[in-house]
């Protein structure tokens, strides 16, 4: 797919601006704090229905404005698609091709993006949160079933945690099994989908990693934790583990079992990368994961996503920069940087310069 146009109104530091993107490489330059990441975030938001790093969408609204508005127009294999989001203090309205959609699942996945920023370079070394987020965002964009299971799971998890914070222990003990019927249903689906996704992603990541290291090291990915093969079996196992954890959950006041606690196991040459990888190795592995994400999107949705490279060039050494640029030919890229990188010299690109939330003509 190709995003052609993006209009922002009262979004972050943009009052009103329209970006025209081309196929291939789009380069956004500008000094710090001018609005490069904000533009990248807007594209990301239209693809995922989620802000980049924050939970409260309120921060997306330009300070002092009542609401923010985003409009994206893309060409996809299903034809032209228009996505709109109007974000208010306490609610939002999402539209696809002019029609309001009630559920996020109907919005997400119309446009696909792979987002890469210095934060993602820490995917390997940081805590499991980042890796779960990676899986959730990635799988949600390619599977409505996953996206919908995840939404429901989050709701039930919040409610279950609220229950666990209560004081009436006998009542809690009585109520938990009722919650866990639903909890385990969606949890099992999430575990199942993640495993299938990782099974497909793993060889792609190994391939990208071999490319980045000239075949020097082998990368493997797997889901942590042993689960039965089928969804029903996974659910049984989760139910059993949930029951065993009742007392602990009540004592701690939150749910200690479930896919919100799972992690991905990333190994380089058989050794767990989370603990042992050097900074450089961890970055290369993270980059491989992201390049693999581009490939799996191509496989699963039969078209390339838009690849957003936010400020990553300066974080990578020259060899990796060259490899990255070489690998993403044929994929629409939105790349932000403070100055035009040497590796981009001579490459045809659509260049835009941003200052204080405005495109400079
Ligand atoms: N809701 C908002 N309203 C107004 N300005 C905002 C809002 N959110 C962020 N900003 C401003 O946007 C700027 C950062 O933009 P960003 O896109 O991150 O910069 P960069 O070009 O370095 O990537 C900061 O000056 C910040 O104050
Ligand atoms: Mg930035």
Verbal overview:
With 361 residues, the chain is an alpha/beta fold. The strands form three sheets. Strands 2-1-4-5-6-7 form a six-stranded antiparallel sheet, covered by helices on one side. The protein has a six-stranded mixed sheet with strand order 8-12-13-3-14-15, with helices on both faces. A hairpin with a 2-residue loop joins β14 (350-355) and β15. It is globular. It has nine helices and 15 strands. It has two domains: 1-112 and 306-361, P-loop containing nucleotide triphosphate hydrolases (Rossmann fold, 3-Layer(aba) Sandwich); 115-302, RecF/RecN/SMC, N-terminal domain (Glutathione S-transferase Yfyf (Class Pi), Chain A, domain 2), CATH 1.20.1050. Magnesium ion is lined by residues 36-37, 310-311.
Briefly characterize the structure.
With 361 residues, the chain is an alpha/beta fold. The protein is built from nine helices and 15 strands.
Helix and strand layout, with pairings?
Layout lengths: L1 E10 L2 E7 L4 E5 L6 H13 L18 E10 L2 E10 L3 E5 L2 E3 L11 E4 L11 H15 L1 H21 L4 H44 L6 E5 L7 H14 L1 H7 L11 E5 L2 E2 H4 L2 H23 L4 E5 L7 H10 L5 E5 L12 E6 L2 E3 L1
Parallel strand pairs: 3-13, 3-14, 8-12, 12-13
Antiparallel strand pairs: 1-2, 1-4, 4-5, 5-6, 6-7, 9-10, 10-11, 14-15
The structure holds adenosine-5'-diphosphate and magnesium ion (MG).
The site of magnesium ion has 4 residues, from α1.
Question: What keyword list fits this structure?
Answer:
single chain; 361 residues; alpha/beta; Rossmann fold; Glutathione S-transferase Yfyf (Class Pi), Chain A, domain 2; 2 domains; six-stranded antiparallel beta sheet; six-stranded mixed beta sheet; 9 helices; binds adenosine-5'-diphosphate; binds magnesium ion
